[in-house]
Amino acid sequence: MELKNNYLSASTIYSELALKKSELANIDKKELEKSYFEKSDSVNEYSKYDEKDYERVLNRFKSSDSEVKNHEQLHASMGTTTTPIRYDYQMGPDGKLYATGGSVRFDTSIPKDEAGAMQKLDELQKAASSPDGLSRADLGIAHSANLNKMLLQSIQEGAIL
């Protein structure tokens, strides 16, 4: 019988511990909710910034948006594309979306005739390297087009069979 009493008392202790853990978890949950509410209850999140900071950041977003769009539109106007221009957007401090990056897919198929191939490679090289501030992808396309032109010229001259 003594064994049963020890077992019951241990069981009672474990159940009391579980109850206390549950109570502590509820208190922690309430404290977390309270702190979250206090953080999100601020009147204006941007009130700690002055108007000059806000305008400076907003102007950077606007400037980046126009630069990215001009860059990608210049690419698209100089070469044949296979898809529409794709832009990456980020929300500015005013809640509007601004372009922060973009890409254009060029038609990189090369015609079988040598004159058409040379013309297409010239077009690709110009389209990829036309804007200022070239990206790695821009440089890669321009470099590949230039290498292919050199290869094609070598074949035309009979240096490579």
From TrEMBL:
It comes from the Bacteria. InterPro entries: SprA-related. It holds the Pfam family SprA-related. This is SprA family protein.
